[in-house]
Amino acid sequence: MAEQALLADLLMLRGHVLGRISDDERAAEVAEQLVRNAGDHDAAWLARARTRAAFHCFPEALADLEEAGRRGVDRAVLDAERAAILQAVACYADALVLRRAAAQRRPDFASLGALAVLEAERGQVAEAERLFTAARHRYQGVSPFPVATLDFRRGLMWLGERDLPAARAWFDAAVRRVPAYASALGHLAEVDAASGAHEAAMARLHALVVSSDDPEYAASLAGLLGDAGHHEEAEYWRISAAARYDELVLRHPEAFVDHAADFWLTVGDDPPRGLQLVERNRGYRSAARAAAVLHRPPRPTEVSTRPSCQGTDAPGSPSAGVPGARPSPRPISRLSCIKPSTVASW
Hints:
Order of helices and strands: HHHHHHHHHHHHHHHHH
Shape: globular
Number of strands: 0
Number of helices: 17
Structural class: mainly alpha
Low-confidence stretches: 302-307, 312-346
């Protein structure tokens, strides 16, 4: 049973590194089988909670965490998973309670790294930088994956701040540790394109559309090819991305409607369809936040029972193309959102 739980974690790691959604799907199958065959074990429920969260099935993931807690999973482990879900639905204040408590209780690589990522998403760049550095100094393992993941998230922060040299430096650092790191390579392509190095960007993306089954890369390549006047090849990759998004929205709507919306609002060139998916995504996020109300950490001075969450157009929601919204950097794959607290043991 323990070996199967480990297999699910390793499949998710490989999916994250290589940009292979099929690995996440296989991990979810393993976790479902674990719950069916070994439902008395806490690790089975924890494994399924993680795979469900990976596909943004947050209410179901929170329910599995409750069951894992009843079966003996350590409170600190549960709090880390809950914090990641609260963070994913932009309930930053509530996630911050859990992240800070973990860092105060045990200021190690995992807790400081997770807090750094949260502060970065909250826009607290100076504090995030301090925490990123502190976390790196606390790392005592030999695996390259945790530090590469942390460096990647640091790069995302600077990309969000539009500091391209800093973003490139941290994406490069991630790729030096893990050369096949798809999300880092995809964002390096974005930095290349923003810096005017369009040929370099397209070369990176051409490699990624072969190695990854995430349609973000095909969509980004189609956009660059179209801008460069290569309309026939751009249309090929646009059609490829559209078909893959349609497939993924059917199979995992909670995880992919936001990225599909961004695609149709931009490269896909179908704004009405994109806006329909934006509204659909708002429904999913509202349901996730409602579930988060039941699992939020206690606050000594609070009066309200409502979580302090950002609006629908917070980071992680499809804002590109919506009037008045700040567009998020592209290509941001769903698989780039894995949290340092999860990979600390890999």
